[in-house]
Amino acid sequence: MSTERKTTPQAPEPAATGPRPGRLTAAAALAALEGLALLAGGVYMLVMGLAGSPDDPRQAETGGVTLIVLALLPLLAARGLMKMRRWSRGPAIITQIMALPVAWQLLQADSAAIPAGIVLAVVALTALVLLVNPATTEALGIRGPGDVQDQK
């Protein structure tokens, strides 16, 4: 073992200060909208599982709790995007990628779920475009792979 102290790379620079771009605000609003929809669905399922008469109360309660917990990801991402935190783009993108298969399944249904699938697909694709936009990336202080600084 060496007694030499290892140096750690410098902490990343904070996100750029200045006004928040409209694209970033719109992406945060869409992520928050998805989070609130998940939260509302989870609360509804939980209440119906506890107070209603579902076929399987345990399944309704578990589904409700699961949706409430899943709502935390887009809600936290939206909060981070509004505060221009660079870490928040990853969870926001993950949320949109997870929403696309859900939208696809809703579009495959032969019911009133088709309009919900259309809305979810449009929201997810719009949010993805806003999140990978260069103005959003720059506002969050995210550098591309070619902009790595040499550490000596």
Task: Looking at this protein, list some descriptive labels.
mainly alpha; 67% helix; single chain; 5 helices; 152 residues
Describe the protein in words.
By secondary structure, this protein is mostly helical. The chain has one domain (22-142). The protein has 5 helices and no strands. The radius of gyration is 20 Å and the shape is elongated. The mean pLDDT is 86.
Which structural class do the helices and strands define? mainly alpha
Number of strands: 0
Quaternary: single chain
Largest sheet: none
Radius of gyration, Cα only, in angstroms? Answer: 20 Å
Kindly report how far apart the N and C termini lie: 23 Å
What portion of residues is helical? 55-70%
Outline type: elongated
Average predicted confidence as pLDDT: 86
Would you identify the regions where 5 or more consecutive residues have pLDDT less than 50?
Answer: none
Structural domain count = 1
Note the beta-strand portion. under 5%
User: How many separate helices?
Assistant: 5
Order of helices and strands: HHHHH
